[in-house]
Amino acid sequence: MFYIIGLGLGDCKDVTVKGLEIIKKCDRIYLEHYTSILTCGISELESFYQKKLLIADRDLVEQSADTILQGADIEDVALLVVGDPYGATTHTDLILRAKEKNIQFQIIHNASILNAVGCCGLQLYSFGETISIPFWTENWKPDSFFNKILSNYQRNLHTLCLLDIKVKEPTLESLTKKKKEYMPPRFMSVSEATQQILEIINKADSGCDVTGNDMCIGLARVGSESQKIVACSISQMTTVDLGPPLHSLVIPSCVLHPLEEEYINQFKLN
């Protein structure tokens, strides 16, 4: 059997009882380690599960998925995923591959940022399309994500912005070499994300519905004991330090429900 097990958002203890029971009986256990991270380290996970974990980086999951599925028809194999298994399309692809090979599979769900974002006080059914904000480089500054923020805003919907993660990313120079070299891990902060958004706003040819004075909400380490939430203007958020990763950003609707306003007040600066 092939299992994809959601680990939740906090630390090793966020795994469900069902998930933990399955982990303890598995013959081979992979930890997907590039779409998200927990606040605890791998050694802490291994100690809690009392199992050895195999690290599944981007290359293994996306290019050598068959290695993970190998033998899953005769033994129990698990892929552990931070958040919920369906939070990334990569995991959906693994399920389709398992079906093609007639390998039985089971999904163990858990909390993800897509529902835990409700901790900021915004009502989940008022969220529009979720977007991802990529790291810019000197010569590559994609801004199509901002159009989706505008679309949600114009329809009185909130936007959850997932911020870029760079884990074991090959350098551009190494792509032409036989041996890959990797960039140091990077995790986008809410200040970096709002700096990019503000640059897009300032470059707009005409009046933009979303301005630097509009409110945004920064979230850090959701689900952990060190969770932090701050609400302020987009311009102010460019200087806010929410500490270690992972960070997420929300651009609220221009019209809030009174309960949303009341709840958000506790997170406002000053």
Automatic annotation (TrEMBL):
Enzyme class: transferase
Enzyme Commission (EC) number: 2.1.1.314
Database matches in CDD domains: DHP5_DphB
Keyword Methyltransferase: yes
Binding site for S-adenosyl-L-methionine: L9, D84, G87, S112, I113, L163, V222, H247
Pathway participation: Protein modification; peptidyl-diphthamide biosynthesis
UniProt keyword list: Methyltransferase, S-adenosyl-L-methionine, Transferase
Any one Gene Ontology molecular-function term assigned to this protein's record: diphthine methyl ester synthase activity
Source taxon at top rank: Eukaryota
Tetrapyrrole methylase domain sequence ranges: 1-182
A family per Pfam: TP_methylase
GO biological process: methylation; protein histidyl modification to diphthamide
Catalytic activity field: 2-[(3S)-amino-3-carboxypropyl]-L-histidyl-[translation elongation factor 2] + 4 S-adenosyl-L-methionine = diphthine methyl ester-[translation elongation factor 2] + 4 S-adenosyl-L-homocysteine + 3 H(+)
Role, per record: S-adenosyl-L-methionine-dependent methyltransferase that catalyzes four methylations of the modified target histidine residue in translation elongation factor 2 (EF-2), to form an intermediate called diphthine methyl ester. The four successive methylation reactions represent the second step of diphthamide biosynthesis.
Family stated for the protein in its record: Belongs to the diphthine synthase family.
The name this protein goes by in its record: diphthine methyl ester synthase
Organism: Photinus pyralis (Common eastern firefly)
Lineage of the species this protein comes from: Eukaryota, Metazoa, Ecdysozoa, Arthropoda, Hexapoda
